[in-house]
């Protein structure tokens, strides 16, 4: 998705024809209509260090392998170019080819080229990775493509209460994140803003900020949003570009020049389902599965809230709240605007901004070990009890918001048998790596001991044993519902063996 040097283009010429031929195009009709997309990644010139890169945009797919009406905005720092890498409303066309297993390859006609591998969901959406890095040069990362409602492409359709979560890296790969909410009046004005931010470990809370927004192109759904700094607060002046999925969902990216005080933030804005009279403690009233990304990789767990201010937490890995603590009695308090204080018994803290009942953007301060701006999302968990049989059927699997080159980045299609005491997950992966992409890699993984609350163990070879499998697994699996679960790999940051950061992997039917 970015400019490439001449050597890099020659590498693509040698590599891509065989990659494209691997997808036959027999299932191109699975992708048809108008789409918005969001991409989070990293650019490297040596395979060990990197700078952030991101893009948002839109395109139309004709169901026969052709892309039209493409447009993208990108931001980042180009290592090979030695300067800021930015595109504003860049028009493009392209082609795609989808095989019988619903895995595809997409080529974007942009300067330098852009090649993606993707996997189709049953609802017509797709998850993808960029696959045009080679020889430890280029861009790696992952993203999402979502079908859009083109009738919503106007400023008036963005109205009501919204919650949001954005996160990213600065030029030195220090991670920052912001979660918050605001009210949009349908005329381009934002009011009643509240947000919590973790700027490279500096955590603060802001209230009553305002801002502006406008849909600048009613044909593409592209718009801009400005959140000015708060007098007496620490919120930066942020200038976002967004592409509409519909009136209730925007894919957003910060377009400010990336610097130590302006990280490259990417995320989602969702319309709040605000109850009459506002949110209350009863809006958090059952099991909510949560998953996080942070500078050290990934983490996740389960909140069980009683609806009156008490909850217990089950957590895995050191990304959030110190990690490792299980089932301790904690408390929470929900404000009418949906902002929620979560207090752990031993003093740790998190903030959540509710989208609806048991659904929220979450953010925490760093832990004493420096977990680097943990932020994520929580979803209502389906009714249990759960077991190995709760993970059964065909799933699309993908890496969520990678934060380091030392993580496995892939998308693919998987089949789970639901067997007990040990279930088997087999799949085919397309892997994004600075050393060079690998397409159509077979993998076999085992999962077991899924409890009635949906937590289990998983081991295997996600990422095709790169980095070596013993440093990635065993990991932890959490069931959100029989149609969705996530995995957190163990990783290895101990200094013994290759460095492998824990990674958040999502699986959706």
Helix content: under 10%
Structural class, by secondary structure, is mainly beta
Low-confidence stretches: 3-22, 79-84
User: Strand percentage, roughly?
Assistant: over 45%
Quick structural summary:
This protein has one helix spanning 6-21; strands at residues 32-44, 51-62, 66-78, 83-84, 87-98, 103-109, 114-120, 126-130, 138-147, 159-169, 175-185, 189-199, 202-217, 222-227, 238-246, 249-254, 264-271, 287-294, 297-305, 310-316, 326-334, 339-343, 349-356, 359-363, 375-380, 392-399, 409-417, 422-432, 438-448, 455-460, 475-481, 484-488, 504-508. The chain is mostly beta strands and 509 residues long. The strands form four sheets. Strands 1-2-3-5-6-7-8-9 form an eight-stranded antiparallel beta barrel. An eight-stranded antiparallel beta barrel has the order 10-11-12-13-14-15-16-17.
Describe the protein.
By secondary structure, the protein is mainly beta. The protein folds into four domains: about 5-145, Porin (Beta Barrel); about 150-270, Lipocalin (Beta Barrel), CATH 2.40.128.120; about 280-380; about 395-509, Lipocalin (Beta Barrel). About 5% of the residues lie in helices and about 55% in strands. It contains one helix and 33 strands. The protein has one helix at about 5-20; strands at about 30-45, 50-60, 65-80, 85, 85-100, 105-110, 115-120, 125-130, 140-145, 160-170, 175-185, 190-200, 200-215, 220-225, 240-245, 250-255, 265-270, 285-295, 295-305, 310-315, 325-335, 340-345, 350-355, 360-365, 375-380, 390-400, 410-415, 420-430, 440-450, 455-460, 475-480, 485-490, 505-509. It has an eight-stranded antiparallel β-barrel. Strands 10-11-12-13-14-15-16-17 form an eight-stranded antiparallel β-barrel. The protein has an eight-stranded antiparallel beta barrel with strand order 18-19-20-21-22-23-24-25. The chain is globular. The relative contact order is 0.13.
């Amino acid at each position: 998705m970015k400019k490439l040097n001449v050597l890099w283009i020659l590498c693509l010429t040698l590599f891509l024809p065989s990659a494209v031929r691997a997808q036959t195009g027999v299932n191109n009709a699975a992708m048809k209509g108008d789409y918005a997309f969001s991409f989070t990644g990293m650019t490297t010139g040596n395979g060990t260090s990197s700078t952030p890169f991101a893009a948002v945009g839109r395109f139309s797919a004709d169901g026969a392998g052709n892309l039209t009406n493409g447009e993208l905005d990108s931001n980042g720092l180009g290592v090979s170019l030695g300067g800021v890498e930015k595109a504003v409303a860049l028009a493009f066309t392209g082609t795609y080819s989808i095989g019988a297993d619903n895995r595809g390859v997409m080529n974007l006609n942009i300067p330098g080229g852009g090649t993606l591998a993707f996997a189709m969901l049953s609802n017509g959406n797709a998850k993808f990775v960029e696959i045009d890095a080679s020889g430890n040069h280029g861009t790696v990362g992952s993203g999402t493509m979502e079908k859009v409602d083109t009738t919503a492409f106007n400023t008036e359709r963005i109205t009501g209460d919204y919650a949001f979560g954005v996160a990213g890296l600065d030029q030195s790969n220090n991670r920052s994140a912001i979660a918050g909410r605001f009210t949009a009046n349908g005329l381009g004005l934002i009011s009643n803003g509240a947000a919590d931010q973790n700027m490279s470990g500096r955590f603060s809370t802001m209230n009553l900020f305002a801002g502006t927004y406008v849909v600048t192109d009613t044909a593409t759904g592209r718009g801009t949003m400005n959140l000015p700094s708060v007098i007496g607060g620490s919120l930066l002046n942020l200038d976002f570009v967004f592409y509409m999925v519909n009136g209730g969902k925007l894919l957003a990216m910060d377009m400010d020049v990336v610097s130590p005080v302006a990280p490259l933030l990417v995320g989602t804005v969702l319309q709040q389902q605000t109850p009459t009279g506002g949110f209350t403690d009863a809006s958090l009233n059952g099991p909510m599965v949560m998953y996080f990304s942070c500078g050290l990789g990934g983490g996740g767990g389960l909140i069980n809230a009683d609806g009156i201010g008490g909850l217990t937490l089950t957590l895995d890995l050191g990304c959030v709240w110190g990690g490792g603590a299980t089932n301790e009695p904690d408390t929470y308090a929900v404000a009418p605007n949906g902002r929620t204080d979560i207090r752990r018994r031993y003093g740790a803290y998190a903030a959540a901004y509710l989208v609806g009942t048991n659904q929220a953007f979450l953010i925490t301060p760093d832990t004493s070990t420096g977990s680097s701006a943990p932020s994520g999302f929580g979803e209502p968990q389906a009714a249990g009890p759960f077991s190995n049989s709760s993970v059964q059927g065909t799933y699309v699997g993908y890496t969520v918001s990678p934060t380091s080159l030392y993580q496995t980045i892939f998308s693919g299609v998987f089949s789970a048998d639901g067997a007990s005491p040990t279930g088997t997950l087999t799949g085919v992966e397309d892997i994004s790596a600075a050393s060079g992409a690998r397409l159509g890699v077979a993998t076999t993984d085992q999962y077991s001991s899924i409890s009635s609350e949906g937590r289990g163990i998983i081991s295997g070879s996600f990422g095709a044993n790169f980095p070596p499998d013993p440093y990635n697994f065993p990991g932890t699996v959490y069931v959100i519902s029989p149609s969705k679960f996530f995995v957190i790999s163990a990783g290895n940051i101990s200094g013994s063996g290759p460095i492998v950061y824990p990674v958040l992997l999502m699986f959706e039917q």
